[in-house]
Design goal:
Elements lengths: L3 H21 L35 H4 L5 H4 L11 E9 L5 E11 L2 E11 L3 E2 L12 E2 L2 E12 L4 E14 L2 E14 L8 E11 L3 E3 L4 E4 L9 E4 L10 E10 L2 E10 L5 E10 L3 E10 L4 E2 L13 E2 L6 E9 L1 H4 L2 E9 L7 E9 L1
Antiparallel strand pairs: 1-2, 1-21, 2-3, 3-6, 4-5, 6-7, 7-8, 8-9, 8-10, 9-13, 11-12, 13-14, 14-15, 15-16, 16-19, 17-18, 19-20, 20-21
Length: about 375
C-alpha cells in the first residue's frame, strides 16, 4: 500500500511547482524568461541568504530548522531543538553594504511560531544631476527593511509544513516601495523510510508586484497641448514583479557526516544548483563547504528589435558562484547554555568576499 504521507508530499510539491510555473508566464510567449528578466525584479534583497549555517543553501530547504528555517523553508521552524530560539546575524555584503538579520522562534506542542527582521545598511550616496555630475552637495541614504511572521506545524511524525508572511519596503528620499510576499514549504524526514534522508520543497517570494509612491514623484510641469499654467503632476512609476523562486532539496546524514543538494528555479534568473557537505563533532564544532553554480549560461538578445547586432548580446554571470566554506562552534560545554557561533565565507566576483557571523541562543 502506498504511504499516504508520500502522496501528501508529492501533492504539495506539484502544487508549489505549478504555482511557480504560473508566475513565470510573461510577455515573452508565456514561458519562463530566465535570464531575459535578470535584474528586472523588485525587492531583490529577498534573495540574499540569511545566517551562516547553510552557506549558500545546499540542502537547506530540506534540513533547515529553527530560526534559520524562517528564510529557507518555513516548514523547518517546528523542527527546532529548543522551546525558544533566537538568532542574530551580520553579513558584509558587496559595495560596502552590510545585511543584518534577527529572528526568534517558539515551539508549543506540534506548532511553532517565528518572527524575523532583515535590513540592509547602505552608506550615504551623493546626489548628482545632469548639470552637477560631480554632486550637488546633497546626500541621501536608501532604506531597505523586511519583516516576517512564520507559522509551522508537524503534520505527522515525519512531515511538517509552514507558511511565512513577509512585508518588504525600500526607498530613498521621498519615494518608497512596498510589497507583501508569502513563503510556503514542506519537509519530509526519513524519506522512503531511509534514516537520515530528508527532502524539502519551498516556494518563496510569492506575491503581487512592488509598487512605489511618495511625494518625490511629484513634479512641476506644463501639460502638453493645454493652456494651463505650471502645475504639479505625479509621475506614475512602473511596477516590478517580486523574484519568486522554487527550491527542491535533499539532505542525508550519517554519523557526523552530512551532505545536501538544492535545485533552484528562479523566475528572474538562471536555474541554480547548490551543494553543501559538513562534518560534525557533536557538542564541539561543525565544519562546512559548499558550492553554488548556474546550470545554464544565458546570452541575452533583444528579440523585439527589428535588427540584431552583436552589441545587443550580453552574458549574465552570478558573482556569488564558486566554493564557500564555514563552520560552527558550540558553546554549551563552555558557557552552560545552548548557544553557538556560526561563520561563513562566500566569494563575490569583482568584490571582496562576504563574511557572515551568526550568534544562536536556545532556551
Amino acid at each position: 500500500m502506498i504511504n499516504k504521507r508520500i502522496i501528501t508530499f508529492t501533492s504539495v510539491l506539484a502544487f508549489l511547482m505549478g504555482s511557480l510555473m504560473a508566475q513565470g508566464q510573461n510577455q515573452y510567449g508565456g514561458a519562463k524568461a530566465g535570464g531575459m528578466r535578470n535584474g528586472t525584479a523588485g525587492a531583490s534583497q529577498l534573495l540574499i541568504p540569511q545566517g551562516a549555517s547553510y552557506l549558500t543553501g545546499g540542502g537547506a530547504v530540506a534540513m533547515a530548522s529553527g530560526v534559520g528555517a524562517t528564510f529557507w523553508n518555513p516548514a523547518g521552524v517546528v523542527r527546532m531543538q529548543s522551546s525558544l530560539e533566537t538568532s542574530f546575524s551580520n553579513r558584509t555584503y558587496i559595495a560596502d553594504m552590510s545585511v543584518l538579520f534577527a529572528g526568534a522562534t517558539m515551539k508549543i506542542g506540534n506548532n511553532a511560531y517565528g518572527v524575523n527582521i532583515r535590513s540592509i545598511d547602505i552608506d550615504e550616496i551623493p546626489v548628482t544631476t545632469v548639470f552637477s555630475p560631480d554632486g550637488t552637495g546633497e546626500m541621501f541614504k536608501p532604506t531597505n527593511f523586511t519583516a516576517g511572521l512564520t507559522y509551522s506545524r508537524m503534520m505527522s511524525t515525519k512531515t511538517s509544513m509552514g507558511l511565512s508572511l513577509n512585508s518588504t519596503s525600500e526607498g530613498f528620499k521621498r519615494v518608497k516601495g512596498t510589497a507583501i510576499t508569502i513563503d510556503a514549504g514542506v519537509q519530509y524526514a526519513d524519506f522512503l523510510d531511509v534514516s537520515g534522508l530528508d527532502v524539502g520543497v519551498a516556494v518563496r517570494n510569492f506575491g503581487r508586484p512592488m509598487r512605489y509612491n511618495g511625494s518625490g514623484l511629484l513634479v512641476d510641469a506644463i501639460a502638453i497641448g493645454s493652456d494651463r499654467q505650471v502645475g504639479t503632476y505625479k509621475v506614475e512609476p512602473a511596477k516590478f514583479d517580486v523574484p519568486m523562486l522554487m527550491e527542491l532539496g535533499i539532505s542525508y546524514k550519517v554519523g557526523g557526516l552530512s551532505a545536501g543538494a538544492t535545485y533552484e528555479s528562479n523566475n528572474f534568473d538562471q536555474d541554480k544548483l547548490k551543494l553543501m557537505g559538513a562534518f560534525s563533532l557533536p557538542g564541539l564544532l561543525t565544519v562546512r563547504a559548499g558550492m553554488l553554480t548556474d546550470l545554464t549560461d544565458v546570452n541575452i538578445q533583444d528579440n523585439l528589435a527589428t535588427t540584431t547586432v552583436d552589441e545587443s548580446k550580453a552574458e549574465f554571470e552570478n558573482i556569488f558562484a564558486g566554493v564557500s566554506f564555514g563552520g560552527s562552534v558550540y558553546l554549551q560545554r563552555l558557557l552552560g547554555i545552548n548557544a553557538s557561533i556560526d561563520y561563513a565565507y562566500i566569494p563575490a566576483k569583482f568584490f571582496e568576499g562576504n563574511t557572515v557571523f551568526t550568534l544562536n541562543v536556545g532556551f
